[in-house]
Write a structure and sequence with these properties.
The complex is a heterodimer of chains A (615) and B (308). Chain A has 615 residues and is an alpha+beta fold. Chain A is 49% helix and 26% strand. In chain A, the strands form seven sheets. A four-stranded antiparallel β-sheet of chain A has the order 2-3-1-4. A four-stranded antiparallel β-sheet of chain A has the order 11-12-6-22. Chain A is elongated and about 110 Å long. Chain A starts with 6 loop residues before the first helix and ends in a 10-residue tail after the last helix. The mean pLDDT of chain A is 85. Chain B folds into two domains: 206 residues, Multidrug efflux transporter AcrB transmembrane fold; 79 residues, Alpha-Beta Plaits. Chain B is elongated. Classes of the chains: A alpha+beta (615), B alpha+beta (308). The interface between A and B is large, with 83 and 82 residues. Strand 22 of chain A pairs antiparallel with strand 5 of chain B. Chain B: It is found in: Cell membrane.
Chain lengths: 615, 308
Amino acid sequence: MQNHYPLWKNLLVLIVFAVGIIYSLPNLYGDDPSVQVSSTRAVKLAQEQANQVESVIKTAGFNIKAFEFKDGHILARFNSADDQLKAADLLREKMSDDYNVALNLAPTTPAWLRSLGAEAMYLGLDLRGGVHFLLEVDMDAAVKQAEERYNDDVRLALRNEKLRYQSVSKDSGFIKVKLNSADDKPALLKILAKDFRSLDVTEPKEQDQVWLKLSEKEVREIKKFAVAQNMTTLRNRVNELGVAEPVIQQQGENRIVVQLPGVQDTTRAKEILGTTATLEYRLVDVEHDVQKAVEGHVPVGSRLYYERNGNPILLDRRVIVTGDQIVDSSSGVDQDGRPSVNISLNGVGGAKMGKLTQANIGKPMAVVFIEYKVETKVVNGQKVRHKEKVEKVINVATIQGVFSHRFQTTGLDSPQEARNLSLLLRAGALAAPVDIVEERTVGPSLGQDNIDKGMLSFVVGFALVALFMVIYYRLCGVFANIALVFNVFIIIAILSMLQATLTLPGIAGIILTVGMSVDANVLIFERIKEELRNGNTPQSAIYIGFEKAFATILDSNITTLLVAVMLFVFGTGSVKGFAVTLIIGLLSSMFTAITGTRMIMNWVYGNRRVEKLSI
Amino acid sequence: MSKTNINFIGNRNIALIFSAVLSIVSIGSLAVRGLQMGIDFTGGTLIEVGYQQAADLTVLRNTLDSSGFADATVQNFGTTKDVLIRLKPHEDVSSVDLSARVLEAINKTTNEPASIRRVEFVGPQVGDDLAEDGFLALLYSTIGILIYVAWRFEWKFAVGSIIATFHDVIVTLGLFSILGLEFDLTVLAAILALIGYSLNDTIVVYDRIRENFRQLRSKSTEEIMNISVNVTLSRTIMTSLTVFLVLVSLFFLGGEVIHNFSIALLFGVVFGTYSSIFIASPAALLLGISAEDLMIPVKEGAELDGRP
């Protein structure tokens, strides 16, 4: 029998359509402006803390739409974005540093849909507002830092093994070890073979020297580590900033994408992400003359620094504690009301600090604030990016008593600076400096505009195409339109299942798909018309029309698909979103336009005598 | 609906000359005027701000001029309340502070503070990478199409489809160059989508030519091509119209951000339709396509021949 689908085929099409509808449903429900509260520590919040948060909000007179406490996170939904912002500010003010307050758009998907795993699409930054950063990790700096570390380690190892040396220094890409006597060379090589396998050893013609270089494998490792470590640090920092649903991804070999939905204060975000700020504690050198050092005679064991007010100061070359050893920090004010940072050190740092303060009571100690700044300068017409390490002594205080793990540092300019510094210390240092090489910020008003305009042009575009199809192909046009509606549902369902990010170009892709996917129907209908003109009966015209059009549809769609895949592979950001919708749209349109339309036509025309087709 | 019978192939020289002129003008403009590259490719900063009332561009320009941003271009974007400020990559200012400093400068002179609609900063090296990726996408798509069409059809068809497609791309780029429209990432995406679309159209015609070569053995190559173009004509026009309709909707209602994207595709659809009717088949003909090229015994041919 012609033009009849077996039961299984009908069921298959219907099931796909049903799934398409169910999984695209969550996108119809909107979002609630909400505030998310979680703990900054690794512990989960308890019920009583949740109650406390709830009462803080309620006492201030805000209407909470819903208050949820799950898995140690608090989610308070509000009726308006205005309430949401004010409540978040209130919470940040009222709650201690232990709480992380983040703005969020919580989907209002009903529970029965969520239980099926149906979730709404993720909206891109161009639709919801927010900021996108592309950060480039400075690999050269990472390698240089490692070289310096090895330089110190080699020197330390020589000292420990009582091998006497003239110098260990970095020179033209090598760490050059100059021994006192060539006789010690075998001993040195033994140490190197045992503890420094990651260094390539070169023996120059000077018998008392050994040159060392980082092995290629080690350099690769260092670079890999630098990116991984930076991503961890950035993730910590972003969490500290209180951003819900951030995206932090590696892109290429040395770039990191950071997307912060809803963030508008980009200046602070940039400060927090890009800075490599840390602290160092050093003893003040009181034995030598600062004036002489300024003139160029810096004593061997000391280094010349400057205070914030520009005064020179000599500090001991050896560092007591560095930022790496800081495990926790919070900002506050000291007893005189000055902004301060409370520091907690790890075991090693605490022990070192304890030993040192014990031995040096009454002597001054300095806190050095270190920051990397990136500047672009023009040298000989070439743009050169130049990284400057800014070191400033922010505080000099006399050691009054012994302290080790916990202490306070003052000397910061403002409470804001204290807050930022404590955040940076808490989140950890960047393994290598990063530069912001791309930034895209979309304001919330533009995001909503883009959604509205995208929706409007979709609805109008769809209506025009549907109208046109009905006018030209009459009843068959209606069939094509039903298939088109399902096509849109399936595209949205697949995008939602993949949790793909919908962008404005993505919406454009869906709109374009609406225009292009009726092509398959046009091909089929034109074929059917042709067969009718050739004198075939309506039944066989339908049959042959679908048969013959199929190969054409396949060939033409595969070539288009090929281009869309290239667009996906080489596109970035929102362009990728366009490619994704195009690919999904092409594939699903083949299904709906061929199988879907056929099923409807079989129902209407199949299994009976048909005199005339409405086409 | 009656069968059309227009002698497209017989009059192919008119179309070929017309296209040659269009292509030469386009290439000429691309060579002389070039494309107005957006910051996606050149690097730089773009700031879109919104006001409650119509913004006075002259005041903004003067303010930026006197604040050390002499290279800033200021223009309305969509409405008179929206202003787009573009800055070249700045050497002496850290790019990170640039947008903040520009805002600070303009907020000093205007009555109401500007609300930021969007800020885009693209570093020069990122711009180069994006341009390179775009070029690679174009290159690999072309190679992929050549291989696929050569495999499914025949190499003369493959080259013909590439000629038709490139014709559309060059003319569209030429129009962008002549009208001074900005070429950014979304336009690049549109160009690639256009390649896909134009190809789709061409393949449908080729598909019919192949089929007719196998069925209508007594006819000449020219006749077969003419018949094929004519029978697919209503389909070609129908599909172009539906795509055109959604693009018109996108152009008028989709907002300023997507404007150039829609323009590129609108041009592209018009030329893509034209080229698949007037250029693709004559191109294959010029390359010397004949029935023998497609006579390789294939199973699907037998299936089609099964009908009387």
